[in-house]
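> example.struct
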């Protein structure tokens, strides 16, 4: 019996699609990629089966997110899509830039006065999670009576409604309910959109050299190091253009920053990463020599390591534990200059790098920590709510 060519073609096409689907699904389950360099974030992973999660529907949601991240060539598809949509965005660019003093939404992104920003989120949206954070931190503090605790909250665009002037109140909630003491609590804040533009990048959610240095001076005073504060030696233009997280998210290649950075004279310092090896943290000096075409925030200030130790080797000084998000990347070497050993923890990545959970009280006791600094945006304090052991 002869088989028609068209039938053979259809069967081959179905087999090929089935093979591609099977290989893609197997890759997502057996060989997942954990971090996307293109999107600069941790990727969603396939969840383990749990009957309770399955019945509630959360497992299906997690699987959908994981398949979206783990499908073969997903980063390439996202980049291609973003670049195409960036062309579409150019048609709306004039409207965005000319609309003043109110938010507009385009393709799910929010803009204010032509500036891409994150949506304002009042305290009510995160109060329940922050309540858990406060309860856990107060219990941890009671278990470590000899340790000094400090809070430094970084207000960003999620904490201010630029159109109305409303503030989220997240810092006030933390400062009022934690038992650290008023003198041990501080915040980075701004009173207007113009100030926000002064301290934060256009294309990225992080603070720039002015914002991070202002935060350092405030922290140095709160921690009792105002007399030893490091001052900038020089302000330099970082070579290359900076496409931040926001423009990468939508593929807006025409939107970027030209970075500037301060040069400091740090004391001799060793930096150790999870495997115990010595490394650099921040490559500003290398970038100035190599003159690259593109740069990144983590390239200049240092990556999100999950765990790291910065040591000056001065045993006469104390040890400090800094638990923060990526805002502290620009602060760590400055803070470390005032301590013997600075232990840096990013709870978002700690378990990935260390292959074990972070146990707060054990870590403080085992490493002779005298001070604990919790620093960052609401992201850091929402991560603290997820602590399972302390």
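> example.seq
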């Amino acid at each position: 019996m002869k088989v028609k060519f068209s039938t053979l073609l259809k069967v081959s096409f179905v087999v090929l699609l089935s093979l591609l689907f099977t290989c893609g699904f197997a890759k997502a389950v057996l060989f997942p990629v954990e971090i996307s360099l293109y999107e600069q974030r941790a990727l969603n992973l396939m969840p383990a089966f749990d009957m309770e999660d399955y019945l509630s529907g959360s497992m299906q949601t997690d699987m959908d997110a994981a398949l979206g991240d783990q499908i073969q060539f997903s980063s390439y598809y996202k980049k291609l899509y973003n670049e195409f949509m960036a062309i579409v965005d150019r048609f709306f660019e004039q409207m965005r830039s000319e609309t003043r003093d109110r938010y507009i939404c385009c393709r799910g992104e929010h803009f204010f006065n032509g500036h891409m920003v994150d949506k304002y989120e009042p305290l009510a949206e995160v109060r329940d999670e922050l309540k858990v954070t406060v309860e856990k931190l107060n219990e941890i503090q009671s278990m470590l009576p000899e340790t000094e605790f400090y809070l430094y909250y970084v207000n960003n665009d999620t904490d201010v409604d630029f159109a109305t002037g409303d503030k989220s109140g997240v810092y006030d909630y933390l400062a009022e309910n934690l038992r650290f003491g008023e003198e041990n609590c501080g915040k980075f804040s701004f009173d207007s959109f113009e100030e926000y533009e002064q301290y934060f990048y256009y294309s990225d959610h992080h603070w720039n050299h002015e914002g991070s240095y202002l935060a350092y001076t405030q922290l140095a005073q709160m921690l009792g190091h105002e007399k030893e504060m490091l001052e900038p030696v020089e302000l330099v233009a970082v070579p290359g253009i900076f496409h931040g997280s926001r423009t990468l998210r939508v593929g807006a290649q025409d939107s970027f920053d030209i970075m500037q950075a301060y040069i400091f004279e740090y004391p001799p310092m060793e930096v150790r990463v999870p495997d115990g090896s010595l490394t650099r943290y921040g490559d500003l000096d290398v970038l100035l020599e190599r003159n690259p075409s593109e740069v990144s925030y983590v390239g200049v200030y240092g990556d999100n390591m999950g765990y790291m130790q910065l040591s000056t080797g001065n045993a006469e000084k104390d040890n400090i534990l800094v638990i923060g998000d990526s805002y502290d990347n620009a602060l760590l070497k400055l803070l470390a200059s005032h301590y013997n050993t600075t232990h840096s923890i990013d709870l978002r990545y700690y378990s990935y790098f260390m292959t074990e959970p972070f146990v707060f009280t054990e870590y403080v006791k085992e490493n002779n920590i005298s001070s604990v600094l919790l620093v960052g945006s609401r992201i850091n304090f929402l991560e603290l709510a997820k602590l399972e052991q302390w």
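> remarks
The mean pLDDT is 86.
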